[in-house]
């Protein structure tokens, strides 16, 4: 019978990495994963006879807090009739220690993402194990109790004999580390129970940077477990199907597989019409091409550019929107999506779509109610299934599809955290550092009035390959060859213009700023930000998190762009496009974007890819069926994440000589803090990928240093491969297109913007930060009709909300009790026009922050946050306009 493992997840962000290590340690194991508060002990006891062993994973918090450990203490207190082998990690070791009298203490020097040499005796789970260099994520440890009286005896049963022996404790230390005496002294790294099959390690064997103490230690444990089970007559019983529902299906299928809920018949794929042009000079003239395609015509009309303005970016995508291009918006907590066709495109005489309505401004609006078993992601999956396409150029990653942005709060809510409440435990503990005047449970101020999903479906596009000089004009509209040809002509005309036409020079940039007036900049309050850093560090010391990505917002106000001619016309000058061109020129980045989808305008020069997933490909299965040798077809899809942690300014203070690559590599890779930040997020991302893809996840590159316009950054690359039956979305009965969308859904918000463990970190950040983040630290990118996608983290960005947008009437069928509080108003409570001088203002929001660890220096963290702000403020001509 296959070994069956029960893994207890304490709401950690490394649990699937531990599951992957177990998968490598055993032949074809069945691994079931449950939260530590999923089942009560009476529910679990009847199931234990079906499991070879239990793995108790790591987690935030303390073994003395019942809400942090759930059922774990009960497992260490199992009656003999239900006893089975248990292996604990981190919180699992601390819980074992506390259960049998060990003393819990705080480390004087916290070890989060630090690597230590582990001293062991080569016995038990360390048999045959050589040198161990282990990753530590802990701020608490246990010390064994003082020796028992000499008369105290413990009867033990070893693998070879039974004996009555005097011991100092029921627990035995198997390994330790020697921290400096001025730090933590001797710290226990592994324990075993002398009479029960309980083993545990304090370090993280599943971390990508643990060497020597991972796979072999788990293999030794499972060998010991099998021997103990045999000696005690434990024979595994089959897990009855009616009981499987309690522990879920075995991982890696233990995830929510949102299959299509659409009842419509499967439609034939659309065809992609493409013409390929070769214009090498066009790569440097993308802004001019956008202007030729209409970006300047109206600052209120939808327009989208995903812009690879610097290496390692490659493809730039210009969405050529039509009068029928639907903008899809969704607000977390509601039961419907809103589909809008822009009034800027639509004639007032155009009929509204069935079931829709028209706003006074002419915008056509439809509301799509979510089904009882649907969420926004499954609705979007159905939407894309019905619009899939084929036949485009294989080398082009985008043929058409959804383009836009998803907010940070969409990911927070998807993690099960209410947006309108603060966890009392953290709110109370962190209250001295939080902003005053916000009541318990009150909806936080900021972007809560606006959409968390803002996407447009693109049928026509121009894609520029900046590496090869090729340009692809594409359409998935039937019979659209004439448009493809006409747009190809426009592309050629732009490419043939003299170099320099249409570009903004430094002088023009300053003249534009002068013409509209200097901006008013309001930085975050420095004292409050530093207090929040210290409060975050206290949460780290208490074991609540390993890393917290603290952020704050800066406000930039301009006099609104206006002229007598614009007041007389129906359109207005494109001030946002001018700002984007200046931002692009001063801070070119591989994942830049200009997204103008009413009422949101986003300007981004993001250097960080969050997630890309390839178009699914068809290949022969790597393994044939056990009943036949005939190979069968499978789909494969590659997913890649590129987290950035570690930033260094290229300019050298007081010198004209820039910092070289060699110096940057030495400074970044030689910094224990920077490497620890990167490592924690890499381990978190491996977990996020593993939750959907299973054990096929690897780290392609760790802590590589990449050059950008103004900074050096430390970047890691994590990849995972999905394989599923042809014709299935997830190998279990879907409708095609791969699982990249589900990896995106399960990975939001980006771990590089939360910290680890992700859920607990987000709860703490909610108590610390004064407002919702909105678009900032969410993601921007595309979901292609061919099944691929590419999303960047929304950083080094700024955004604004327009005051005027179409009102949406509630449909008669809507129930007020089923809807979230209305967020229809576009005026932010955080940014008010009367905060600034002048009759009219245009208000932009810039988010910035940094990863707070136990090693963080508050002043240095403030300076790093300001450094990140400067890359955006510089393009606004606002560096000398900063105020507090």
TrEMBL record:
<dbReference type="GO" id="GO:0000162">
    <property type="term" value="P:L-tryptophan biosynthetic process"/>
</dbReference>
<feature type="region of interest" description="Disordered">
    <location>
        <begin position="614"/>
        <end position="635"/>
    </location>
</feature>
<feature type="compositionally biased region" description="Low complexity">
    <location>
        <begin position="621"/>
        <end position="630"/>
    </location>
</feature>
<dbReference type="Pfam" id="PF04715">
    <property type="entry name" value="Anth_synt_I_N"/>
</dbReference>
<dbReference type="InterPro" id="IPR017926">
    <property type="entry name" value="GATASE"/>
</dbReference>
<feature type="domain" description="Glutamine amidotransferase">
    <location>
        <begin position="6"/>
        <end position="223"/>
    </location>
</feature>
<feature type="compositionally biased region" description="Basic and acidic residues">
    <location>
        <begin position="439"/>
        <end position="450"/>
    </location>
</feature>
<feature type="compositionally biased region" description="Low complexity">
    <location>
        <begin position="811"/>
        <end position="826"/>
    </location>
</feature>
<protein>
    <recommendedName>
        <fullName>aminodeoxychorismate synthase</fullName>
        <ecNumber>2.6.1.85</ecNumber>
    </recommendedName>
</protein>
<feature type="region of interest" description="Disordered">
    <location>
        <begin position="342"/>
        <end position="367"/>
    </location>
</feature>
<dbReference type="InterPro" id="IPR006221">
    <property type="entry name" value="TrpG/PapA_dom"/>
</dbReference>
<feature type="region of interest" description="Disordered">
    <location>
        <begin position="427"/>
        <end position="450"/>
    </location>
</feature>
<feature type="compositionally biased region" description="Low complexity">
    <location>
        <begin position="346"/>
        <end position="362"/>
    </location>
</feature>
<dbReference type="GO" id="GO:0046820">
    <property type="term" value="F:4-amino-4-deoxychorismate synthase activity"/>
</dbReference>
<dbReference type="InterPro" id="IPR029062">
    <property type="entry name" value="Class_I_gatase-like"/>
</dbReference>
<feature type="region of interest" description="Disordered">
    <location>
        <begin position="561"/>
        <end position="581"/>
    </location>
</feature>
<dbReference type="InterPro" id="IPR010117">
    <property type="entry name" value="PabB_fungal"/>
</dbReference>
<dbReference type="GO" id="GO:0005737">
    <property type="term" value="C:cytoplasm"/>
</dbReference>
<dbReference type="InterPro" id="IPR005801">
    <property type="entry name" value="ADC_synthase"/>
</dbReference>
<dbReference type="Pfam" id="PF00117">
    <property type="entry name" value="GATase"/>
</dbReference>
<feature type="domain" description="Chorismate-utilising enzyme C-terminal">
    <location>
        <begin position="625"/>
        <end position="803"/>
    </location>
</feature>
<feature type="domain" description="Chorismate-utilising enzyme C-terminal">
    <location>
        <begin position="526"/>
        <end position="617"/>
    </location>
</feature>
<feature type="domain" description="Anthranilate synthase component I N-terminal">
    <location>
        <begin position="299"/>
        <end position="410"/>
    </location>
</feature>
<feature type="region of interest" description="Disordered">
    <location>
        <begin position="255"/>
        <end position="279"/>
    </location>
</feature>
<dbReference type="Pfam" id="PF00425">
    <property type="entry name" value="Chorismate_bind"/>
</dbReference>
<keyword id="KW-0289">Folate biosynthesis</keyword>
<dbReference type="InterPro" id="IPR006805">
    <property type="entry name" value="Anth_synth_I_N"/>
</dbReference>
<feature type="compositionally biased region" description="Low complexity">
    <location>
        <begin position="255"/>
        <end position="267"/>
    </location>
</feature>
<dbReference type="GO" id="GO:0008153">
    <property type="term" value="P:4-aminobenzoate biosynthetic process"/>
</dbReference>
<dbReference type="InterPro" id="IPR015890">
    <property type="entry name" value="Chorismate_C"/>
</dbReference>
<comment type="similarity">
    <text>In the C-terminal section; belongs to the anthranilate synthase component I family.</text>
</comment>
<dbReference type="InterPro" id="IPR019999">
    <property type="entry name" value="Anth_synth_I-like"/>
</dbReference>
<comment type="pathway">
    <text>Cofactor biosynthesis; tetrahydrofolate biosynthesis; 4-aminobenzoate from chorismate: step 1/2.</text>
</comment>
<dbReference type="GO" id="GO:0046656">
    <property type="term" value="P:folic acid biosynthetic process"/>
</dbReference>
<keyword id="KW-0315">Glutamine amidotransferase</keyword>
<dbReference type="GO" id="GO:0046654">
    <property type="term" value="P:tetrahydrofolate biosynthetic process"/>
</dbReference>
<feature type="region of interest" description="Disordered">
    <location>
        <begin position="808"/>
        <end position="835"/>
    </location>
</feature>
<keyword id="KW-0808">Transferase</keyword>
<feature type="compositionally biased region" description="Low complexity">
    <location>
        <begin position="561"/>
        <end position="576"/>
    </location>
</feature>
């Amino acid at each position: 019978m296959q070994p069956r493992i029960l893994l207890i997840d304490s709401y950690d962000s490394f649990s699937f990495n531990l599951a992957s290590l177990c998968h490598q340690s055993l032949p074809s194991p069945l691994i079931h994963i449950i939260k530590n508060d999923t089942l009560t002990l009476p529910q679990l006891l009847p199931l234990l006879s079906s499991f070879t062993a239990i793995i108790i994973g790591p987690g935030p918090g303390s073994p003395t807090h019942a809400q942090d450990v759930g059922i774990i203490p009960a497992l260490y207190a199992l009656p003999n009739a239900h006893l089975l082998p248990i292996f604990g990690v981190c919180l699992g070791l601390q819980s074992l220690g506390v259960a049998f009298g060990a003393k819990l203490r705080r480390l004087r020097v916290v070890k989060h993402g630090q690597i230590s040499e582990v001293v062991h005796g080569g016995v038990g789970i360390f048999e045959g194990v050589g040198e161990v260099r282990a990753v530590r994520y802990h701020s608490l440890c246990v010390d064994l109790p003082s020796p028992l009286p000499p008369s105290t005896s413990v009867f033990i049963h070893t693998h070879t004999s039974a004996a009555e022996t005097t011991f100092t404790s029921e627990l035995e230390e198997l390994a330790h580390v020697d921290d400096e005496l001025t730090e933590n002294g001797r710290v226990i790294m592994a324990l075993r129970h002398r009479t029960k099959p309980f083993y545990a390690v304090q370090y993280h064997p599943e971390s990508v940077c643990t060497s020597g103490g991972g796979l072999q230690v788990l293999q030794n444990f499972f060998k010991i477990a099998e021997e103990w089970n045999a000696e005690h007559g434990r024979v595994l019983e089959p897990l009855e199907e009616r009981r499987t529902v309690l522990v879920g299906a075995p991982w890696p299928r233990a995830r929510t597989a949102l299959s299509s809920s659409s009842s419509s018949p499967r439609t034939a794929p659309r065809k992609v019409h493409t013409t390929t042009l070769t214009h090498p000079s066009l790569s440097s003239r993308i802004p001019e091409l956008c202007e030729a395609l209409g970006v300047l015509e109206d600052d209120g009309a939808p327009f989208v550019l995903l812009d690879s303005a610097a290496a390692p970016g490659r493809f730039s995508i210009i969405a050529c929107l039509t009068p029928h291009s639907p903008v899809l918006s969704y607000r977390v907590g509601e039961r419907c999506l809103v589909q809008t066709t822009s009034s800027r495109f639509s004639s007032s005489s155009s009929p509204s779509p069935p079931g829709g309505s028209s706003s006074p401004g002419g915008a056509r609006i439809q509301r799509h109610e979510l089904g009882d078993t649907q969420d926004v992601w499954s609705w979007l999956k159905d939407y894309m299934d019905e619009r899939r396409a084929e036949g485009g150029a294989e080398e082009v990653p985008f043929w058409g599809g959804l383009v836009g942005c998803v907010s940070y709060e969409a990911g927070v809510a998807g993690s099960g955290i209410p947006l309108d409440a603060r966890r009392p435990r953290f709110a109370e503990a962190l209250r001295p550092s939080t902003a005053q005047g916000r009541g318990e449970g009150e909806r936080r101020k900021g972007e809560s009035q606006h959409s968390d999903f803002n996407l447009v479906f693109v049928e026509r596009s121009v894609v520029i390959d900046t590496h090869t000089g090729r340009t692809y004009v594409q359409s998935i509209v039937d019979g659209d060859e004439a448009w493809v040809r006409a747009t190809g002509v426009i592309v050629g005309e732009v490419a043939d213009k003299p170099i320099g036409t249409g570009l903004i020079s430094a002088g023009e940039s300053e003249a534009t700023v002068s013409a509209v007036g200097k901006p008013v900049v309001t930085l975050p309050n420095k004292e409050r930000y530093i207090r929040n850093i210290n409060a975050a560090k206290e949460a780290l010391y208490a074991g609540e998190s390993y890393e917290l990505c603290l952020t704050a917002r800066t406000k930039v106000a301009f006099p609104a762009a206006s002229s007598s001619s614009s007041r007389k016309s129906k359109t207005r000058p494109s001030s946002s496009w001018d700002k984007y061109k200046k931002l692009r020129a001063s801070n070119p980045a591989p994942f830049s974007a200009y997204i103008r989808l009413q009422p949101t305008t986003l300007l981004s020069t993001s250097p960080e890819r969050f997630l890309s997933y390839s178009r699914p490909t068809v290949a022969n299965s790597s393994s044939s069926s056990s009943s036949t040798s005939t190979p069968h077809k499978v789909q494969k899809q590659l997913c890649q994440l590129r987290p950035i942690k570690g930033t260094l300014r290229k300019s050298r203070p007081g010198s004209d000589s820039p910092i070289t690559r060699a110096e940057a590599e030495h400074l970044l890779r030689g910094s224990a803090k920077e490497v620890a930040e990167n490592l924690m997020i890499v381990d978190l991302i491996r977990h996020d990928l593993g939750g959907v893809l299973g054990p096929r996840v690897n780290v392609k590159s760790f802590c590589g240093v990449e050059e950008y316009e103004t900074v050096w950054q430390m970047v890691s690359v994590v990849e995972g491969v999905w394989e599923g039956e042809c014709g299935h979305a997830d190998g279990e009965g879907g409708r095609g297109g791969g699982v990249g969308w589900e990896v995106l859904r399960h990975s939001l918000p980006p771990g590089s913007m939360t910290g680890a463990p992700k859920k607990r970190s987000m709860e703490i950040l909610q108590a610390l930060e004064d407002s919702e983040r909105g678009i900032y630290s969410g993601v921007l990118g595309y979901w292609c009709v061919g099944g691929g996608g590419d999303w960047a983290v929304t950083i080094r960005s700024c955004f604004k909300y327009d005051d005027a947008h179409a009102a949406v009437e509630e449909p008669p069928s809507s129930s007020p009790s089923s809807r979230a509080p209305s967020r229809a108003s576009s005026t932010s409570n955080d940014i008010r026009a009367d905060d600034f001088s002048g009759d009219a203002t245009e208000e932009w929001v810039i988010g910035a922050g940094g990863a707070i660890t136990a090693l963080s220096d508050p002043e240095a963290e403030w300076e790093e946050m300001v450094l990140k702000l400067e890359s955006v403020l510089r393009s606004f001509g606002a560096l000398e306009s900063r105020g507090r």
